[in-house]
Specification:
It is built from eight helices and nine strands. By secondary structure, it is α/β, with parallel strands linked by helices. The protein has a nine-stranded mixed beta sheet, with helices on both faces. β1, α1 and β2 form a beta-alpha-beta unit. It starts with a strand and ends with a strand. The chain binds uridine-5'-diphosphate. Uridine-5'-diphosphate binds next to α3 and α5.
Length: 236
């Protein structure tokens, strides 16, 4: 096993599958099964999931809402997705804990770093909900922040695309995929992997990022076992 402790970042939008909004149970189940494969290997798994399939702060602003109000609604959306994923993981007998950055003790523990790492050591999957708990941030930033706090070996950003390309592969046929790329190259080429706040935080803390396609079964397991999947971003 190459990575002993991972932080898996999933986007809320991916959970929609072919639906227009909300959560596709088939995608949820597929994700849960892939996560189980790596837990069974002995890998410690923490997860941050977005909320874009339900609500985004900017959506609120577009309809005249206060930004901060919209962002808190977005954070609550991530809790709904976290609970859905938690349910799917428990359906296949994984032990889980949900910790949120906004207190809601009836449904989740508050985020406590020491407690989170203890859960991981005991083989529980830990899901971090409600982003960073602050408006004007994103779940990518929450993912990087939590990854650093719990000393994750790597952050795995599951997307629909199988890595980082020279251009958007869905628009440009000549786009080429990178197997590895440095932080510096990403800045210089103006590539978009995460928002800049998240990306710089990751860079400054020497956290490697792997961007990969989470919708292909087996990818997560192969990654954890050290196979070349997706694109690796590092400082060397
Ligand atoms: N959000 C926030 N602070 C955070 C994390 C999230 O305000 O620390 C809000 C923000 O409005 C964002 C929404 O929650 O638009 C959903 O998160 P995001 O867009 O990152 O989810 P994804 O695109 O990954 O589904």
């Amino acid at each position: 096993m190459k990575y002993k402790r991972i932080l898996l970042k999933l986007s809320g939008e991916a959970l929609m599958g072919d639906l227009q909004y909300g959560i596709d149970p088939a995608i949820l189940q597929q994700y849960a099964e892939q996560i189980k494969e790596v837990v069974d290997l002995g890998c410690e798994v923490a997860i941050v999931i977005g909320g874009g399939n339900i609500f985004r702060g900017v959506q609120g602003v577009a309809s005249g809402m206060d930004r901060v109000q919209g962002d808190y609604m977005g954070m609550l959306a991530t809790v709904i997705n976290s609970m859905a994923l938690q349910g799917a993981l428990e359906d296949i007998d994984l032990k889980t804990r949900l910790q949120t950055a906004i207190r809601m003790e009836q449904i989740a523990e508050p985020f406590i770093k020491r407690r989170a790492t203890r859960h991981l050591e005991k083989g529980r999957v830990v899901i971090f909900g409600a982003g960073t708990g602050n408006p004007y941030f994103t779940t990518d930033t929450a993912a990087v922040l939590r990854a650093i706090e719990i000393n994750a070996d790597v952050i795995l950003k599951g997307t629909r695309v199988d890595g980082i390309y020279t251009a958007d592969p869905e628009k440009d046929k000549n786009a080429e995929k990178f197997d590895t790329i440095t932080y510096e190259e990403v800045y210089n080429k103006g590539l978009k992997i995460m928002d800049m706040t998240a990306f710089t935080l990751s860079d400054e803390n020497n956290l490697p990022i792997i961007v990969f396609d989470m919708n292909t079964n087996g990818n997560l397991k192969n990654l954890v076992l050290g196979e070349k999947v997706g694109t690796l971003v590092t400082n060397n």
